[in-house]
């Protein structure tokens, strides 16, 4: 206990020292540093007074029939990447567990936003307003893919938050997190925006996180992140931790994304995510070079689902999507988010790179459902250096993978420190093409590899399980 208190005191001391250093460094010599700090102190106080009345505690209960580690912080269980699990405690059969998180009022008639994982599969939801007033809440709608849920209580004239524009956030900007860490209601912590546009975290389906060092702990899930004006710019969702508590890295869903989800839930009762019907991956330098690109922007199409919108529009494996509705595509995750935010039934314009030329393609966006979710996700990564053994694909594997008879070579093994292993090839992969040429024999493969070495770059299209992906390397 004393160690924990000492650590907390040290963290607060470091935060204050940092603020003092920044203030004295950027404030003109003629200004009074103490006066500036007093102004900052006043700003924090005003933020707390403005936003705290709109922040609620969300308690949800469920029946648990076996021993479990439920009961403290949902996101640490749901996303085990984020820290050690809390110690398991004995449970009686059919005992009732209470989970605690945060939320914030978005309308004066009792509409509240929180994280989906805070209320997922819950038997009963209780909202506690500042002043310890308890209300039973009902679930209005939720979107597991974005981890957003809307709940409602029967109350009037409640103080609703003011939304901010998360797209205008700058790295280094001061932000404040408000919530109920460890059930401690109305806790206010401060920090800065550490980064924006964090993706590939593996937390939720659609990721575009704000990263912050504002202290966030178990129980903060669903609470607001606000800017210096007291405007909500995000909803606190997860932390990266090895201890189960704050370690300086928190992740927040941007307010712009949260508002889009809220509007969809209120209007349609669910969020309809768009679907292209492709698998995509980020470009690496070797891949970009093999396709005649000089930069790494865009999303490489590694697979097109038959009869999908992309297939009907003529999108092909090996195309690189550069723009989506006139917005430049930086990578696979960004394209996935853009497609997911597109209303099914609408038409999207894509600018693609094919055969070293650009072309525009129009695609009728479909709806992403459980059955059609062959979605836009980064497929694989490629790296450096080829000691592999290949063989003809056995008939049984050809049938299992749906391949054409006689096409492709299966990798039987690879040398751990060889170029093939380093570039991402694995035992069991089926090499379908080398530099856009289908492979049907061992001699053909050897010839194509030698030619690729002379050209300075080699690109494989491989079948890995149900997916096709590209890998490339320079020589």
Overall description:
This protein is of the alpha+beta class. It has 3 domains: 239 residues, Thrombin, subunit H (Beta Barrel); 94 residues, Roll (Pdz3 Domain); 87 residues, PDZ domain (Pdz3 Domain). The protein contains 11 helices and 26 strands. The strands form 5 sheets. The chain has a 6-stranded antiparallel barrel with strand order 1-2-3-6-5-4. A 6-stranded antiparallel β-barrel has the order 7-8-9-12-11-10. The longest helix has 25 residues. The chain is elongated. The N and C termini lie far apart (57 Å). The N terminus is likely disordered. This is Periplasmic serine protease, Do/DeqQ family. Keywords: Hydrolase, Protease, Repeat, Serine protease, Signal. It comes from Desulfomonile tiedjei (strain ATCC 49306 / DSM 6799 / DCB-1).
Record the SSE blueprint.
Layout lengths: L1 H25 L6 H19 L3 E10 L9 H5 L16 E11 L5 E5 H4 L4 E6 L3 E11 L4 E5 L21 E6 L7 E12 L10 E4 L11 E3 L5 E8 L10 E5 H14 L5 E2 L2 E4 L3 H6 L8 E6 L4 H5 L6 E5 L2 E2 L3 H9 L6 E8 L2 E8 L1 E2 L20 E5 L2 H7 L7 E6 L4 H5 L6 E5 L2 E2 L3 H14 L1 E8 L2 E8 L1
Antiparallel strand pairs: 1-2, 1-4, 2-3, 3-6, 4-5, 5-6, 7-8, 7-10, 8-9, 9-12, 10-11, 11-12, 13-20, 14-15, 15-16, 16-17, 16-18, 18-19, 21-22, 22-23, 23-24, 23-25, 25-26
Protein name: Periplasmic serine protease, Do/DeqQ family
InterPro entries: Chloro_Bact_Ser_Proteases, PDZ, PDZ_sf, Pept_S1C_Do, Peptidase_S1_PA, Peptidase_S1C
Keywords: Hydrolase, Protease, Repeat, Serine protease, Signal
List key phrases describing it.
Thrombin, subunit H, alpha+beta, 475 residues, hydrolase, elongated, single chain, Pdz3 Domain, disordered N terminus, Periplasmic serine protease, Do/DeqQ family, Pept_S1C_Do, six-stranded antiparallel beta barrel, 3 domains, serine protease, 26 strands, 33% strand, repeat
């Amino acid at each position: 206990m004393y160690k924990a208190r000492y650590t907390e005191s040290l963290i607060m001391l470091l935060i204050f020292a940092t603020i003092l250093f920044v203030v004295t460094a950027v404030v003109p010599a003629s200004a009074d540093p103490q006066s500036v700090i007093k102004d900052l102190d006043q700003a924090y106080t005003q933020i707390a007074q403005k936003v705290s009345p709109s922040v609620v505690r969300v308690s949800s209960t469920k029946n648990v029939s076996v021993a479990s580690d439920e009961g403290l912080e949902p996101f640490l269980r749901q996303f085990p990447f984020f820290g050690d699990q809390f110690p398991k405690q004995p449970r009686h059969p059919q005992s009732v567990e209470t989970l605690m998180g945060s939320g914030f009022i978005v309308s004066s008639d009792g509409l509240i936003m929180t994280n989906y994982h805070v209320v997922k599969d819950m038997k009963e939801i209780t909202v506690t307003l500042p002043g310890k007033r308890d209300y039973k809440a009902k679930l209005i709608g939720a979107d597991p893919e974005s981890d957003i849920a809307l709940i409602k209580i029967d109350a009037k004239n409640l103080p609703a938050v003011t939304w901010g524009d998360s797209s205008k956030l700058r790295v280094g900007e001061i932000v404040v997190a408000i919530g109920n860490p460890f059930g401690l209601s109305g806790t206010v912590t401060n920090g800065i925006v550490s980064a924006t546009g964090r993706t590939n975290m593996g937390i939720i389906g659609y990721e575009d996180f704000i990263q912050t060092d504002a202290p966030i702990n178990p129980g903060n899930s669903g609470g607001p992140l606000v800017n210096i004006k007291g405007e909500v710019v995000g909803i606190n969702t997860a932390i990266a931790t090895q201890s189960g508590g704050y370690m300086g890295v928190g992740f927040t869903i941007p307010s712009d994304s949260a508002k889009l989800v809220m509007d969809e839930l209120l209007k349609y009762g669910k969020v309809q995510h768009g679907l292209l019907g492709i698998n995509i991956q980020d470009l690496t330098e070797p891949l970009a070079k093999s396709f005649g690109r000089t930069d790494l922007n865009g999303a490489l199409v590694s697979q097109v689902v038959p009869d999908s919108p992309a297939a009907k529009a003529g999108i092909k494996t090996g195309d690189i999507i550069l723009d989506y509705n006139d917005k430049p595509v930086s990578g696979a995750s960004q394209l996935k988010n853009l497609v997911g935010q597109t209303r099914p039934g609408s038409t999207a314009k894509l600018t693609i790179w094919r055969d070293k030329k650009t072309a525009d393609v129009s695609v009728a966006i479909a709806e992403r459902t459980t059955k059609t979710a062959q979605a836009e996700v980064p497929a694989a990564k490629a790296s450096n250096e080829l000691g592999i053994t290949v063989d003809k694909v056995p008939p049984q594997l050809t049938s299992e993978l749906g391949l054409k008879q006689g096409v492709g070579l299966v990798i039987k093994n690879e040398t751990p420190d060889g170029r093939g292993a380093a570039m991402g090839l694995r035992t069991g992969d089926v090499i379908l093409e080398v530099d856009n040429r289908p492979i049907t024999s061992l001699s053909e493969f050897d010839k194509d590899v030698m030619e690729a070495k002379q050209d300075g770059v080699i690109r494989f299209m491989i079948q890995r399980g149900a997916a096709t992906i590209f890998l490339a390397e320079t020589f």
